């Protein structure tokens, strides 16, 4: 009887819609986790996972003893943190500004323009940025030369590479989050604004006391989800833009793993680094879920 009641639930079609995505996650995300054992082996492709000799924690010790490991971890955390902060602040500001636009056609046009970069891959955007920021032919440096400023090697200077990563990432992705925040604004009751106007509240006070509190659940949600990516500084972006000249400021865990695993063929060491990153990310996202519940009484699950 209980089984029949559950099957007659109005939500079972939604669960069936999730099923294909769940199957893909099981195949491509959980299935390959068997390969984690490589982190504890001196892996030899010719002998495979089952016949490769065990090395215990030697791969982890080797990584910790590498002179570049701490620099790579520091770069990853700094770049990811800057992207998270900028990726939260900019969409909130833009959504608040767009919310004040009364001409619907103009508003939708702006939404479309800022949303378009989200659909472009970093291969395309990387080529565009390389051309735009070129020290010899790039339009940015040409404008600087007209102003009497020496050309800047944005993608080859360690002092400029991180700002370029953060700004270009925000430019690509802030349109998506802006639309999410605009959708959250539609759930705020107009009666609250009418009552605030009657009480003499201006636009700033309405924004501070009504709009932002109304957006707070989705802000907490996106912030919580973004904290789980604190060690994901964006492999696609960095890989398409960086060079050995900016390893000091731009080399991150993912590019480090790529060079160790695929270029140097040290598969066990690369797997050990990836496992360490996944473990730390799991801790971060668990803490973020807990803080979201304790501080904002918001539960994702």
Structure commentary:
The structure is a single chain. The model has no long low-confidence stretch (mean pLDDT 84). The protein is mainly alpha-helical and 301 residues long. Helix 11 packs antiparallel against helix 15 (267-296). It has 15 helices and no strands.
Features:
71% helix; 301 residues; globular; mainly alpha; 0% strand
Round the mean pLDDT to the nearest integer and report it. Answer: 84
Name the overall outline: globular
Q: Largest sheet, if any?
A: none
Q: What is the helix fraction of residues, given as a range?
A: over 70%
> How many beta-strand elements?
0
Briefly note the structural class of the backbone: mainly alpha
Query: What distance lies between the first and last C-alpha atoms, to the nearest angstrom?
Result: 27 Å
Low-confidence stretches: none
β-strand amount: under 5%
Question: What topology does this entry show?
Answer:
Layout: H1 2-7, H2 12-30, H3 48-51, H4 58-65, H5 69-99, H6 104-115, H7 122-132, H8 139-146, H9 158-185, H10 190-198, H11 203-227, H12 235-241, H13 247-250, H14 253-263, H15 267-296
């Amino acid at each position: 009887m209980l089984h029949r009641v559950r099957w007659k639930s109005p939500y079972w079609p939604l669960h069936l819609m999730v099923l294909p995505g769940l199957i893909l996650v099981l195949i491509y995300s959980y299935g390959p986790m068997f390969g984690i054992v490589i982190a504890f082996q001196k892996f030899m492709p010719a002998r495979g996972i089952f016949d490769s000799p065990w090395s215990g924690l030697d791969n982890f010790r080797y990584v910790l003893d590498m002179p570049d490991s701490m620099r790579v971890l520091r770069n990853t955390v700094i770049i990811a943190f800057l992207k998270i902060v900028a990726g939260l602040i900019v969409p909130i500001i833009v959504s608040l500004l767009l919310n004040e636009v009364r001409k619907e056609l103009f508003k939708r046009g702006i939404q479309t323009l800022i949303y378009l970069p989200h659909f472009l891959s970093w291969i395309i955007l990387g080529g565009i940025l390389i051309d735009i920021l070129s020290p010899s032919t790039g339009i940015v440096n040409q404008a600087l030369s007209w102003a009497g400023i020496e050309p800047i090697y944005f993608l080859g200077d360690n002092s400029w590479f991180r700002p370029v990563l953060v700004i270009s990432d925000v430019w690509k992705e802030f349109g998506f989050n802006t639309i999410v925040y605009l959708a959250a604004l539609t759930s705020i009751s107009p009666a609250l604004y009418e009552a605030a106007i009657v009480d003499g509240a201006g636009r700033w006070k309405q924004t501070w006391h009504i709009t932002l509190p109304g957006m707070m659940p989705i802000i907490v949600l996106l912030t919580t989800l973004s904290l789980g990516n604190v060690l994901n500084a964006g492999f696609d972006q960095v890989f398409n833009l960086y060079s050995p000249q900016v390893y000091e400021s731009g080399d991150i865990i993912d590019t480090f793993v790529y060079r160790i695993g695929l270029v140097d063929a040290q598969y066990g060491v690369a797997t050990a680094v990836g496992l360490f990153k996944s473990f730390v990310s799991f801790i971060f996202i668990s803490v973020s879920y807990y803080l979201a519940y304790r501080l904002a009484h918001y539960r994702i699950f």
